[in-house]
Design goal:
about 290 residues; mainly alpha; 14 helices; single chain; about 70% helix; about 0% strand
């Protein structure tokens, strides 16, 4: 996952060593369970060739679970690194069943839910994570992102502002703040926030595109075009940036340049209705003559 995506908190609590007496009890419990499992397997083998339980569930999938919360957390982190968010969500939920108050598991589950496009589920989980650990900048800015997606811009602004104060070096916190400010209509704060994100790291096309949007509202068409071009230099497949660039070029009277950008969009996405309509509209305009 690129830096533009949300991050996980990989700080895990260490496991506590077992005392001698507790270790013996654990060994005895494991041995006792092994005998019981053997009896269950033997009985099932005698009654059914497919070893099914009375409710139709195979013994192999029976809900015997020995992993600790930390082990589930590590498993979820591994799935996250691989981009398998669905399995990561399952692992984090298992970690929370083992340890319902684990702030790291709550944070990571909230991040995953937001990445999966489930902000309604992510918001309360992240709020719980923050109640447990209110110094977690990641939880604050991911909550801000989720709130932005629900157009709850005032709340998002508050969370993103806290995130920038806790970690002023994270460009995603500043971009989230800018998006919340943009939603509130605070264009000057949006512009300064996006610029701060780019001062920290100017390699994110989305930050350039968001700044271009804010500059467009401010009436700075030249600045908008420059930032959209910066975004496209970093990511030529950013369709939103290319469409916005086409509109800005049209506003400047650069019809042919705008048409060229729209043709690029339609090559990537032939069914893009916005590009089709703009292309038809702009193509009908007479070309400027010297």
């Amino acid at each position: 996952m690129s830096h533009g995506n949300s991050k996980l908190n990989f700080a895990l609590n260490g496991s506590t060593a077992l005392s001698g007496s507790r270790a013996r009890k654990v060994v005895f419990s494991v041995l006792s369970f092994s005998l019981a499992a053997f009896c269950l397997t033997s009985c099932a083998s005698n009654s059914s060739s497919d070893s099914a339980t009375s409710d139709g569930q195979s013994l192999e999938s029976a809900p015997f679970e020995f992993k600790t919360s930390t082990e589930h957390l590590l498993e979820g982190n591994n799935y996250f690194k691989k981009g398998d968010y669905a399995k990561a969500e399952i692992a984090y939920r298992k970690a929370l069943r083992k340890d319902p108050n684990n702030p790291t598991a709550k944070n990571n589950l909230g991040v995953i839910l937001n990445e999966l496009g489930k902000p309604d589920e992510a918001i309360p989980i992240l709020q719980e994570a923050i109640k447990t650990d209110n110094k977690n900048a990641i939880a604050h800015y991911v909550l801000g992102k989720a709130l932005n997606s629900k157009q709850r811009f005032d709340e998002a602004f508050t969370e993103a502002k806290v995130a920038t104060e806790l970690d002023p070096t994270d460009p995603i916190s500043w971009r989230t703040l800018g998006e919340a400010a943009l939603g509130r209509g605070d264009i000057d704060t949006a512009i300064s926030s996006f610029k701060q994100a780019l001062i920290i790291d100017d390699t994110h096309d989305l930050s350039h595109h968001r700044l271009a949007q804010a500059l467009a509202i401010k009436g700075d068409v030249e600045g908008q075009i420059e930032e959209e071009r910066n975004a496209l230099e970093l990511n030529p497949n950013n369709i939103d940036a290319r469409l916005s660039l086409a509109i800005a070029l049209t506003n400047q009277g650069k019809r042919d340049d705008a048409i060229a950008e729209l043709k690029e969009v339609l090559e990537m996405d032939p069914r893009n209705n916005t590009a089709q309509n703009l292309y038809k509209q702009i193509s009908q305009q007479p070309a400027k003559t010297n």
